[in-house]
Amino acid sequence: MGSTSDLRQGAVIEFKGDPCVILETSHRFMGRGSGFHQVKMRNLKTGRQFENKFRSSENITFLRLEHREYQYLYHDGVAFVFMNNDTYEQVMVEDAIVGESAEFLRENDMVKIAFSDDEIISVELPAHVTLKVVETEPGVRGDTVSNTTKPAKLETGASVQVPLFVNQGDVIRVDTRTRSYIERVKK
Fold it and tell me: Are residues 120 and 141 in the same domain?
């Protein structure tokens, strides 16, 4: 248990029976009476973001998460299968827990899986991944005056916006959190 003064960005709390990660928090004081904490958080089971107000005197249950590194093996049509390289233990993770980040998963990629009392809470991909562009329109010569982008399909099936100079067959680095292009990688 903790109090609202312990709320920090990145902390994981139990809210209405679900684990939630704190994205932003600010303390507000409205003239008379006690203040409150305005908290923006994301439900780790559903991925939904929302805001809530906590009174300053409210008790909050903080969750202690254990992060373990796993290797992505395959998707069996129902769930994702990951393996711990130390113990060779395999775990199945539901599609809903992996979420949209599954678009950036390749076989043998390493991820971190967060556990709370042996229950899988979330799957965290590396912040940046390097992927090959398999499909994109060719850039038009001389159309580089503005900061224009075009869609590109990557080897995992994900689609991101890239600058016009990126061509099919190029290898690019992508930020998995914002789903955005970072840079072209030299071969």
Answer: no
